[in-house]
Amino acid sequence: GIFVADSREEGASLTYYAKTGSIVEKGDEKVLKMNDGVINRKSVTGDLSVIRFTSYAFDMSAFLSAANDITLLPKDRTTAYLLNPDPNDKMFQREPGSYRAELNQRFAE
Questions:
Q1: Dist CA 58 CA 6 (whole Å)
Q2: Closest by Cα among 32, 35, 33, 2 to 17
Q3: Contact indicator for 7, 16 with CB cutoff of 8 Å
Q4: Which residues contact 38 (CB under 8 A, 6 or more apart)?
Q5: How far apart (Å, rounded) are the C-alpha atoms in residues 42 and 14?
Q6: Count of alpha carbons within 13 Å of 57, Cβ hemisphere only?
Q7: Residue 101's pLDDT band (boundaries 50, 70, 90)?
Q8: Please, where are the H alpha helices in 1-77?
Q9: What is the pTM of this model?
Q10: b/e code 41-73 from CB counts within 10 Å (16+ = b)
């Protein structure tokens, strides 16, 4: 199942539930195509609207532009990446020892 909580719209919050979905790429755009689901829209006054859908396309462009600014911690990296980190990785430049510590932790378990 898929669950998306969206509070970007001032004055309302949207919650999307779907049984299945997939990410579809159209050029530079990525869309989350959800199937067999419900959208709950709650206003600041507490009014609730429920919309059922068989298919719905959710534009992910607003989320993907913000995703480029994310810094992954060593615990979130793959073991292969920890063994050979990108020298330009900002986190690696600040705390190279944390990458070795995470590797030691993984091999010790």
A1: 11
A2: 2
A3: no
A4: 16, 17, 18, 50, 51, 52, 53
A5: 6
A6: 8
A7: very high
A8: 61-67
A9: 0.57
A10: beeeeeeeeeeeeeebebebeeeeeeeeeeeee
